[in-house]
Amino acid sequence: MPRGYFITFEGLDGSGKTTQLRRLAAWLTASGKSVVTLRNPGSTALGDRLRAVLLDSRSESSLGPISPLAEMALMFADRAQSIAEVIAPALAAGSIVLCDRFTDSSEAYQGAGRELGSQRILAIHAAVCDNLQPDLTILLLPPLAASLARARKRNHRHAASEAADENRFERESDNFYSRIHEAYRQIAAREPQRVVTIADDAADNSIDAIELRIRALVEARLTALR
Hints:
CATH architecture: 3-Layer(aba) Sandwich
Radius of gyration: 17 Å
Mean pLDDT: 92
Order of helices and strands: EHEHHHEHHEHHEH
Number of domains: 1
Structural class: alpha/beta
Strand content: 5-15%
């Protein structure tokens, strides 16, 4: 059986990546494709526990401050488990795997945001994830201010409704997010064949228009495999 196809979605919270992943999954499924979706961190029993620690703003009240290196290690523990439990079996079965965040997020958030450096992140990825690389990464990169405003508004709304509080990263400074935004730009420049950036530079940048651009991109990539 031919190997499946691995697509990751990247960007700051509030960039629209999760919405676009869901829309792409629905379109591919309606087209008769076998599709598996997941998120990092999360989507396994271990990953969901790690997600609660890493993203819940209340976790440090009981655990104490999480060091940048511990944060990085937990992110990769989640990723290694998701590869073993979800991604590798799905690819072996010929499915299209759509993942909300992968190692590019660690390079941006921990490597740049926490200032641990890209080389450390990439070395750990090679060791812990057997250097598994996405076939395609869709990077949604709207202006920084717009992403932050949407993410903070959404997470505060969820917290107020007693849903999961995932505000831990949203409490960071604008400088933290500026470093992340720039890191994503550098990753895209370094790997232009894998990473396709979708920014707010088109005449129509509505959710529907972006969805159509992503569909066309994915369809072209999948057609090229035949």
